[in-house]
Amino acid sequence: MLESRVNVNLTPEEIAEAKRRLGREPNEIELGMIDVMWSEHCSYKSSKKVLEILPKSGRRVVVGPGYDSGVVDIGDGDVIAFKVESHNHPSAIDPYNGSATGVGGIIRDILCMNCRPIALLDSLRFGNPQSAHARWLFNNVVKGIADYGNRTGIPTVAGEVEFDESFEVNCLVNVACVGLGRINELTLARMDNPGDIVVLMGGDTGRDGIHGVTFASKTIREDSELERPAVQVGNPFIKKLVIEATLEAMRTGKVTAVKDLGGGGLTCALSEMSSKGGTGVDVELTNIHVREEGMTPYELLLSESHERMIFTILPESQDEVLRVFRKWEVPYSIIGKVTDTGRIVAKYRGRIVVDIPSKLLTEPPMAKRRARKISIITKKRASKPPIPMDFAKVMHHILSSPNIADMHPVYRQYDHEVGLRTILKPGDADAAVLRIIGKNKAIAVKIDCNSLHCYLDPYAGHAAAVAEAARNVTATGAKPIAVTDCCNFGNPEKPEVYWQFKEAIRGITYMLKGLGLPCVGGNVSFYNEDEESGRAVKPTTTIVMLGLIERLSLVTSMALKEVGESIILLGKTYPELGGSEYYRLIGFDGGKVPKAVASRERASIKTLAEAIRRGYVTAAHDCSKGGLAVSLAEMAIKGGLGLKVDLAYVLHTPSMRIDEILFSESSARFIVTTSEVNTAKILSLARRRGVPASKIGEVSASSYTVAMNGKILFECSVESLRESWQDAIRRLIGG
């Protein structure tokens, strides 16, 4: 049988269905194309039905899910395109090239919309930081992202890093890109016009990346190192030329569509573009400019070599567009034309080697998965560990945790100011803030998730991830307007994993609807699992939140500003230490996971937004990972000032312990500072919206002091806290 001679990942049922739809036995090349397009990576066959519940519409949505990136309207004719994708499997095998090409791919997704990429963000997860393997992955992933982003001239402005044993074999590398464009100049990746010329532009086609999407659609095995040829190799210098050539070609008005060649290569681009347009396409494969001699039609159609774009061009205007490509010295090939047949017909040296309906490739059979609930910590939720005797020591330990510590040793490898848009540097605020040049407005963008919360309670953890990302952009002076997400899970064929995924999407949907936010796109990465041990990554749906700052004067950082200012806590604290950094530090796995309630989140977000709008707030910080104690320390370290707070004034549920008040990671909370004269005004705003709020202390000169009913519990110098906070990641990367 043919499928026994061709290495495919299709099930026997899928092969039978392909034969039925095609009406004949597919040839070797066609079977390879079906294998790619029906892979989990390309088809979303396990996730598509579940994702349908997400809210996708809103007054600012210009382009929603289904295209290369979501696009939202930010006024004045300006639009923001943004997208996040995973490059987990390639990065686990070849961390430098895997992460670098993850950056390259997401840049092209933005470029497809005719938007200029202006910022990158990354969300990274690795195993135990004491493990040599985890450190190797960490250092090479960061270097790959830095080298690629810096050389293309796109700033990496924000990110997050988490360490957990579940990511030892399967690291997670999620990269987001943000682009700026004009609403009347957007381009969609669809072939609508039969007769248009099809041009392949960019880097040469080689054998790298073949079967990359099928590799990403199965678990990591001990012999996965043999899959290294499935990892693509990027070239950021060519990418820079591709960016400029693409944007200039678009300005001619003669380009009707453009799409990047990412996962699935030419097969995916041609089938998706023609399927969306209800058209077909004829191509001659021998016209493709190649890097390696003797490439077969199979290899040409399935290669995932990077830095390549497909253009469709009005036939009478092709010379004008091709002149642009020559100006930028970017290679190109005229490979075919759009037809009205609804079929992909590929020739090699004039002989037809593929003749297959586009929709057969883009409309795969959906997988039927079972879900089975699992409970992780229900038995231990009622128990509590002993109260620490030395809270100062605990503070130093938790600040030096790699999940809390200063990420400056990572940020310093990224050029975060190229392009002159970055208003707040990485770490200065809860989200990155980028100016819209020439306008009195900016955007805030954040990438966020708490994997441990999502593991212990997938519904609550993912709802809280959305809420935290919304709070993050709000704390910079922005109004949250849209999200995109990246789902990272184990093997969906396992009912427990599929239940985690369904619960995650339910939680995200609940919070998005509660906050009135649309999800304009996303990505799903399954099979993040070590086949040898059966260990899957903790469920992690990375949330990218976009916010709009309507006046530059509203931009707010987290740093304490002036001695004597009031410190106000918005929101109530609950005994919710399940999955907290504090419990992780002391090795305790019980407790309740923080529960995010949409009505509370909405009220606290609106309260802070109004306070910032009225000019009352001098600094703001979301209170989440590490709890109140860590959030206060971060504000003090950033401002180079001290503080004195009294826990008696923290609004909390009765009978809470001191460690619960200090380290609980309850949702819907902000720490804000303000002048004495504006303190009552902020508290009044909170009361009107039903938000629990109280003044808990004041900014001081240099000491971090925590009291209870006037009695000092512990005191540290801010400088000593800074040293603990700054040392951990520096030690990890050996710098």
Description of the structure:
- The chain has a domain at 385-405 and 556-735: PurM-like C-terminal domain (Phosphoribosyl-aminoimidazole Synthetase, Chain A, domain 2, Alpha-Beta Complex), CATH 3.90.650.10.
- The model has no long low-confidence stretch (mean pLDDT 93).
- The strands form five sheets. The chain has a seven-stranded mixed beta sheet with strand order 8-10-7-11-9-12-13, sandwiched between helices. It has a seven-stranded mixed beta sheet with strand order 23-25-22-26-24-27-28, with helices on both faces.
- 35% of the residues lie in helices and 24% in strands.
- With 735 residues, it is of the alpha+beta class.
- Helix 7 packs parallel to helix 8 and helix 10 (236-251) runs antiparallel to helix 13 (318-327).
- The protein has 25 helices and 28 strands.
Separation of termini? 56 Å
Tally of DSSP β-strands? 28
Number of helices: 25
Oligomer: single chain
Describe the strand arrangement of the main beta sheet, using strand numbers: 8-10-7-11-9-12-13
Shape: globular
Structural class: alpha+beta
CATH class of the domain at 385-405 and 556-735: Alpha Beta
CATH architecture of the domain at 385-405 and 556-735: Alpha-Beta Complex
Beta-strand content: 15-25%
Q: What is the overall pLDDT average?
A: 93
Largest sheet: 7 strands, mixed
Over the alpha carbons, how many angstroms does the gyration radius reach? Answer: 26 Å
